[in-house]
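Could you join me in thinking about how sequence relates to backbone shape in a protein? To get us started, please write out a protein record for me. Would you write everything just below, so we can both look at the same thing?
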Amino acid sequence: MQTTRSKELAEEYLRLGGKRLAKIDDNIVKIRHWDDDTPEAEAFWQKHIESLDDKRRVEVETHLPTINDR
């Protein structure tokens, strides 16, 4: 099974200890961030995800766990 770049980024962020959750409502994606990320996950987010254009960042965010998964 082939993995997309956006899924790879999301998986690496989570592997590093990322805690952000996606809130998806009517195809609008927002991020919730109640718990602190590990320093490694935060640095990864800033370097590899935050810098993406809006469309690509949303693609990554949709691969994060959702607030409904809690």
Observations:
- The beta strands are 21-25, 28-32.
